[in-house]
Amino acid sequence: MLLIEDYPYANDGLLLWSAIRNWVESYVQLYYPDAGTVQSDEELQGWYHETVHVGHADLRHEPWWPPLATPEDLASILTTLIWLASAQHAALNFGQYPLGGYVPNRPPLMRRLLPDSERDAADYAGFLADPHRFFLNAMPGVLEATKFMAVVDTLSTHSPDEEYLGEGRDEPWTGDDDAVAAHHMFAADVRRAEETIERRNADHGRRNRCGAGVLPYELLAPSSPPGVTCRGVPNSISI
């Protein structure tokens, strides 16, 4: 239960988290039905050992690393990885241009330091008299601003061939009918999540995402057209 009734990132994120978790649990159960199959898989255990002890060598002794001993452990770890590389990344990445594309919202650099009241008394007085003018005079030049806008545009752009969570593939990705059926259920969960997000964004009672001057929260909408939009959760990891 969320303390904030409509916190869009959390509300919409929980829909996708639940869909990902159910899909991963169904998939893992097909191939790792019990703890013994997880613990005896040398490649799986080697992957996790390398992740902790090599990939994060400086943190390998921390007590918060989850164990990898049961199917539940494996499903939890994979769910977290898929969430971070898909929905979480989308929430952080694809909303950059609508905010940062207008450079005064998020300038990449400032060309003047705030004046010191003791060493630069005249500049400090001017700053206090008109802080807005001081801010504009400190903004980056046109060349720096346009370069920054181009970078943010590139980061925020959906590719025409981007794949999204729950999308089908042109050719079967596995011959296991049970795995295919589980993926179809996942795709249905994702579609329902998108429909729910669209209804929420159209609900005028939700002031955090609907109303005058308020953009709908589409960062976790599971699909998107190409280009710069606030929508789309890429299918960054496949299992």
UniProtKB/TrEMBL annotation:
It holds the Pfam family Lipoxygenase. GO terms for biological process: lipid oxidation. The keyword Metal-binding applies. Gene3D superfamilies: Lipoxygenase-1, Domain 5 (1.20.245.10). Residues 1-239 form the Lipoxygenase domain. Keywords: Dioxygenase, Metal-binding, Oxidoreductase. GO terms for molecular function: metal ion binding; oxidoreductase activity, acting on single donors with incorporation of molecular oxygen, incorporation of two atoms of oxygen. This is Lipoxygenase domain-containing protein. The gene is gb18769.
